[in-house]
Inverse folding.
């Protein structure tokens, strides 16, 4: 066994221009490839960039640029680990959803990743926001996001969450339990009924892992369609003069690659809308079918075709309402990962290479504190050596983090050049969602910065968390 090591260095750097701006690709809706687009996609596949931001380009000396910014140069200037977020990619994905669903409300799911700039971008692109806490809500509103375009979620909203939502005037609150109905009604001021929706569990299994399948019975989210809990919640809300029931909500899971589960969910929700009309004499005007749209993390993986989803969902909704003689409700979707996930790239520096009898471990200067997803869900990524060329034959390695856990693995059994060594840089694409939003303070390492890249300019959105930041919360003995 041999070990090579390199000290960790993270020089602080601020905003500055880097490379020449890239040629911008024309906008297109998902699934609407032209012959020219197909050729571009084939070229990206050949370059190993199929799951990278669309602006990603191979550069001399083994480097890659995103948004016209050299990743190797950004790593040197901003330190590592560092997350780069392609602003143009985020904006184009927002526009793609609006193109695919022109008559629907698109809400960005803030839990995927939220900062002030992200809230500003999605607002400028005409999207609303889906938040899960008073913290997410306050950040968005203090950034200038219109509260009436915000929906508040959560299976266990705290009193502070509910009071903040009412005080700031959120557009809708999604009721997730019967106990929440009385709690919310009790604190809602008289004369201004709060619009609410009921989160319904439609009894549909979908999602990339058991821990993210939220459409099935016997789990913490929502009210079951099967056992009548959803219908009971509707009745209770209608009995509350301070609450205004405006629609139904469901979210079947995350990393859903197929359209069929969404179509089935719409069919069941329309059936419930019809039963509510028959029982209570009201036609609810809104239907929210959540998000969970899959992206590809590695070449060859499936992602959800949003254009196909739009056509099938709209057809099912219109046909179902025609069969039951219902007016077609206003549709709402909540994509998060599908907007920000493919726009992010994480860059790490190799600190050590350890070869055992059966494995080669490549240790980097980040890990489960900035990306817990591999430890939580066993997800797999496709890291790439950047910053230098290599003609060495590839070798299967396991990329591990710096934390004191055997499960701190970022990428298991991936092919990297056999001459990889300390000081090298590794870039991980599809890193925009559920990395920093789930980051922790484990080992007091500090969370990495977020740097926006576009047109050859890099600017810090969220600075690196320092030891001083973490120490301030410790009040001492």
């Amino acid at each position: 066994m041999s070990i090579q090591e390199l000290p960790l260095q993270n020089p602080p750097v601020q905003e500055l221009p880097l490379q020449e701006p890239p040629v911008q690709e024309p906008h297109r809706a998902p699934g609407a490839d032209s012959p020219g687009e197909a050729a571009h996609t084939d070229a990206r596949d050949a370059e190993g960039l199929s799951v990278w931001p669309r602006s990603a380009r191979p550069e001399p000396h083994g480097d890659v640029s995103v948004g016209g910014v050299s990743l190797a140069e950004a790593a040197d200037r901003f330190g590592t680990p560092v997350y780069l977020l392609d602003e143009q990619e985020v904006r184009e994905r927002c526009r793609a959803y609006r193109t695919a669903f022109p008559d629907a409300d698109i809400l960005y799911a803030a839990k995927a990743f939220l900062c002030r700039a992200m809230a500003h971008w999605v607002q400028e692109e005409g999207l609303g926001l889906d938040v899960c806490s008073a913290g997410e809500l306050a950040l968005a509103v203090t950034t200038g996001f219109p509260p009436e375009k915000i929906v508040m979620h959560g299976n266990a909203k705290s009193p502070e969450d509910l009071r903040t939502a009412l005080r700031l005037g959120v557009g809708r609150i999604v009721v997730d339990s019967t106990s929440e109905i009385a709690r919310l009604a009790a604190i809602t001021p008289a004369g201004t009924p709060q619009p609410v929706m009921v989160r319904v569990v439609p009894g549909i299994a979908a999602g990339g892992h058991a821990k993210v399948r939220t459409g099935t019975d016997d789990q913490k989210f929502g009210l079951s369609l099967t056992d009548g809990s959803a219908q009971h919640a509707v009745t209770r809300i209608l009995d509350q003069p301070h609450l205004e029931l405006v629609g139904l909500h469901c979210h079947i899971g995350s990393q859903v690659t197929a359209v069929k589960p969404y179509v089935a969910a719409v069919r069941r929700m329309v059936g419930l809308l019809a039963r509510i009309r028959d029982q209570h004499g009201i036609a609810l005007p809104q239907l929210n079918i959540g998000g969970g749209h899959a992206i590809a993390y590695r070449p060859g993986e499936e992602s959800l075709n949003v254009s196909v989803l739009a056509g099938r969902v709209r057809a099912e909704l219109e046909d179902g309402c025609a069969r039951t003689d219902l007016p077609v409700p206003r549709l709402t979707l909540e994509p998060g990962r599908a907007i920000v996930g493919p726009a992010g790239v994480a860059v790490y520096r190799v600190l050590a290479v350890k070869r055992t009898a059966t494995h080669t471990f490549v240790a980097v200067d980040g890990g489960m504190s900035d990306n817990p997803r591999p430890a939580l869900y066993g997800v797999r990524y496709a890291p790439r050596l950047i910053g230098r060329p290599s003609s060495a034959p590839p070798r299967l390695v396991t990329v591990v983090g710096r934390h004191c856990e055997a499960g701190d693995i970022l990428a298991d059994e991936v092919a990297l050049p056999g001459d990889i060594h300390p000081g090298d840089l590794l870039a991980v694409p599809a890193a925009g969602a559920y990395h920093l939003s789930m980051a922790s303070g484990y080992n007091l390492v500090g969370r990495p910065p977020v740097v926006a890249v576009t047109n050859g300019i890099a600017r810090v959105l969220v600075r690196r968390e320092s030891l001083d930041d973490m120490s301030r919360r410790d009040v001492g003995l």
